[in-house]
Amino acid sequence: GAGRAGGAIDPVDFLKQPQTLLRVTTWIFSIVVFGSIVNECYVNKDGHHPELLCIFNENESACSYGIAVGVIAFFGCIFFFVVDLYFQQISSVKDRKRAVLLDLGFSGFLAFLWFVAFCFLANQWQRTTLTRGFSQGADAARAAIAFSFFSIIVWVVLALRALQRYRLGTDMSLFTTEQFGTDPSASYPGYPGGSGVESTETYQSPPFTETLEPNPKGYQVPAY
Questions:
Q1: Residue 217: pLDDT band by 50, 70, 90 thresholds?
Q2: Fold of 11-170
Q3: According to the UniProt record, where is the region Disordered (predicted)?
């Protein structure tokens, strides 16, 4: 696709691409997870103590980890959304390869982080004793767990799409090199040969020479 570099960006077509829709989906999921934890998962245990506790078994690490993964995914989606937008403008094949590999590594890493977040939050939620205060944030806690699970699926799909793009780029590179001979001294393949007889009728006068007037009659070119 490097040959298309410099072409105009069509926002409508870009927004219709499956990869763009997946980016937006993961972006929304990340907002739901860390937004739910920040806004509703810090509650009073029984209403008598003013201290706010993490609803996930009073484990501050569970809430902090969920927020951290959500924030990382939030900004990661924005970054790769911009990379996808300007990907067709990248003319260097090496830069394109780095972008695809970065996408592959980041997507796989986020899928792993979300898997850990889902397991961590679900485990702590099972150990949570619902008091009157904790019951107020139960829906938000379940939402954080559910969308953590959904995020695993979407990030795995993004990683597989990045892997597919990388393999496609590798195959195209092999295709472009197989047309040349393996012998280092082999010549560059030329155009298909004709009949072997050159015709002078195929040659034309150089540009801007047809307007020149012929030599005046009687004038001879001096010999040197």
A1: low
A2: Butyryl-CoA Dehydrogenase, subunit A; domain 3 (1.20.140)
A3: 185-224
